[in-house]
Structure formats: structure tokens, C-alpha cells
Write a structure and sequence with these properties.
By secondary structure, this protein is an alpha+beta fold. The protein folds into 2 domains: about 130 residues, Jelly Rolls (Sandwich); about 80 residues, Winged helix-like DNA-binding domain superfamily/Winged helix DNA-binding domain (Arc Repressor Mutant, subunit A). It is built from 8 helices and 11 strands. The strands form 3 sheets. Strands 1-2-9-4-7 form a 5-stranded antiparallel sheet. A 4-stranded antiparallel sheet has the order 3-8-5-6. A two-stranded antiparallel ribbon has the order 10-11. A hairpin with a 2-residue loop joins β5 and β6. α3 packs across α4, α5 crosses α8 and α6 packs across α7. The radius of gyration is 19 Å and the shape is globular.
Amino acid sequence: MKKNNNCDLKTCFMCQLTLKEWHPAIESHKRNFIAKKGEVIIKEGDQVSGVYFVTSGNVKVHKQWGDKELILRFANDGAIIGHRGISSSISTYPISATALETTKLCFVDIDFFKTTIKVNQEFAYGLLMFYADELHASEKKMRNLALMSVKGRLAVAILGLRDQFGLDDEGFLNLALSRQDLAAFTGATYETVFRTMNELLAEKLIIVKGKQIGILNEAGLTDLSSK
């Protein structure tokens, strides 16, 4: 990754919740980088060195599931990645993280990160809530994988990505997503996702332009997501 010195100490999750008096310490310990599209930021199985915060851009957090890739979540502006490596029993990252576009990142080593948690009560509480929300989302996703059809999972994914990334002026998701990544995110095969996307198009629930997905019928997608 290419080094980058731009950081306003305001954007990321850590800076927003830590004491202002702690910001000089962050300034002296942080390192800023730029990752190119497709560049691996964290590799599953590597030794834990620290955590990253996304200053701008989009990142997919993923892991190997047998011979397939499973995308656990997407991280954009202000989000944290690498926190899954914080454990009392393991010392390697259980996930990988890859830039989906040119992405700016802030990195802090693991020892300083743990010290920051101990010193900053609001940050510690915010991190606890983040872990709780992430656990809830993971449990819901596992339930959907077990009980919901691929069409329903696609509807859930599209609406969730709309909530996270928003829509552009033309009504498309502010995230260009390949069919392969969409399959990895919904836990389905590429062929099944391709066929199901065509069904959603035929039913005029969505519109597609290249790798961009637009919502035509939110009520219809919501109905599918509840089945």
C-alpha cells in the first residue's frame, strides 16, 4: 500500500469517540495508507499487527468457506476493519479485507489500540456496541442462509446496501458490485445469482447498469425480504 499523510483526526470511528486530549497520541502513532482497487489490506491467517479505519472508499471483508469466498460485510467511510483479530486465544486475522476501489486508510498497531480502549471510556463503550451490532447482523445472516430463498437474500442484500451506501442521483447504489461479489455476499453460486437477478429484472423490482444496481420497486423487495 502507498503511504498517505492526509488525516483530519475526525473521520474515523476511533477519532470520533476518543478524548480530544488523546488525539495528539493518535497523531503520533497512526499511519495512513492508500490501497488500490483489488489490493489486499488484510490477509486471512496473517499475524495480527493492528486495526485499520476506512477514511474514504469501500472495502469488502471476506473469508474462505471451503473452496468458496464468503463476504461477511462491506466497510466504508469511518468503519473499522481488522478488529476480528483481537482475541485472547488467537493471534492471526480470521478474515481478509480487500479494497473495492481506491481507498484511504488509517492504521494503528494493536498495542496502541488496546491502550486507547483502556484510556477512553466512550470509545470502549462504542466498540462494545459495534461488536454487539455486528454479532446480531452475523446471526441474522446465518438465519437467512439457512431459511431464506436466494431471491429473498438478494432483496435483503440490496436493501441493506442501500441503507449503508445510499443511492446516487440516478437511483443506483453508491457501490459498484460484481455478480461474483454479490454471490459471495448472499451465500449463493454465481449461476444462481445471475438467474435470480434476471428474475428481479423481469419483475421490474430492480434495474441494472453494468455493476450498478438500482431499485425500482422498494415495496416489492421489502416483501421478498420478509419471506
